[in-house]
Amino acid sequence: MSAITHSLVRKASRFAARHTLQRWLPLQRQRAVVSFSFDDVALSACTTGAALLQEYQARATFFVCGGLENQMEQGQLCHHGAQLQQLHRDGHEVACHTYSHLNCELQPLSVLRPDWAKNRHYLDQLGIPLSGFAFPFGAYDLSSKYAAAQRFSYSRITGGGMQQGRADLHALRAQALYAGKTTEQEIRNLITEAVEQGAWLIFYSHEVSDQPGPWGTTPAQLRFALQTARDAGCDLLNIRDAIQHYRAVSA
Ligand SMILES: [Zn+2]
Predict the structure, then answer these.
(1) How far is the CA of 75 from the centre of ligand 1 (A)?
(2) NodB homology domain location, by residue (predicted)?
């Protein structure tokens, strides 16, 4: 198969996966909800990030790979278990991102399933209950979407967009919050749109550092997003709590 054909097949597969096996959560049009999430969970997200969230009484979702504990990733030192326990005690959501940061689109289920189980065991040992999932690299196909749907209460993808009117719990859309890429105007526009549409906007990032890599945010940018969302009257809820909130208002 040529590279172009292969790329087209993957795009078609991703499109098919995106648009099948949906599980809709109705979102009543109301105050916008903004969720912040941190993937891989760098040490700085647990410390600098959590302190900033605390200032705004915001609770976030931290998508953890157990295999990254105390490891360096992209030049960033990652979490240790006690910090995840503290985040959990503080009302943040600690959720799964595979144990080994696997590309779920490329790995067979015979590899994925034991890896998920290993991360479950890692979180179990910390006393953290099973929650949702975020696909590493935002990569998934139909079989991994289906397998994740059987295991987790929700799955988050990347690739942009927000949830309006309804949310696919098996593929929640999210927007990058990257200091080198996302401008303040884009953040303002996204939050304005969320407010106007009564939508649910999810941001994702990695480290929270004054010198972040290409996939991280700065304390100043995170503060700007938190402040803009709060000034706009949005509820700042982690993903788990946002789902509970929408279920409660539609019950
Ligand atoms: Zn990741």
Answers:
(1) 14
(2) 30-149
